[in-house]
């Protein structure tokens, strides 16, 4: 992988991490949707692009349905969170948040010279894992990037993806988890 490819992967990981944050008009601007459209066009995901265009028409109330869906899927729902965005929930036998896998992810971050900014941050949250992959790609640490994907990300992501695809009501998050899957596959 060349340096420009590493930088490109870093930008892709950062874009995907940002996409998993709570939807806000501060970052969901025209340039964000332009990048998303470019990804979908380059991958030939025309049906997905069309579905997103129809559901996010950018009229006066386009943002609220995304915020509601984000909250429903990833933050709270009755009787429980539908698709918790934390690896430990899927990897621990009891579905415990901040389980052993979170500690292992945190240790891997530290081995590579990185740490979480906030004391309360949960290390195996999907946004932190994607941001960490961006840092590794940026530094050209391909071996470490692949090791992290293999040991920390891929073991739980398919279960998370399946929940989002099965329970999602807005096409945005289905398209997003499929993009994450595409860019974190072993073949990449």
Structural account:
By secondary structure, the protein is an all-alpha fold. The protein has one domain: TorD-like (Orthogonal Bundle), CATH 1.10.3480.10. The chain has helices spanning 3-19, 30-43, 46-55, 63-75, 87-91, 100-111, 126-138, 142-153, 157-167, 171-184. Helix 1 (3-19) packs antiparallel against helix 7 (126-138) and helix 9 (157-167) runs antiparallel to helix 10 (171-184).
Summarize the structure.
This protein is mostly helical and 188 residues long.
Number of helices: 10
Low-confidence stretches: 1-7
Provide the structure class. mainly alpha
User: What count of domains describes the coordinates?
Assistant: 1
Approximate shape: globular
CATH topology: TorD-like
Considering the chains and any ligands shown, give keywords for the structure.
188 residues; mainly alpha; TorD-like
List the helices and strands and how they pair.
Blueprint (H helix, E strand, L loop, with lengths): L2 H17 L10 H14 L2 H10 L7 H13 L11 H5 L8 H12 L14 H13 L3 H12 L3 H11 L3 H14 L4
Helix pairs in contact: 1-7, 1-10, 7-8, 9-10
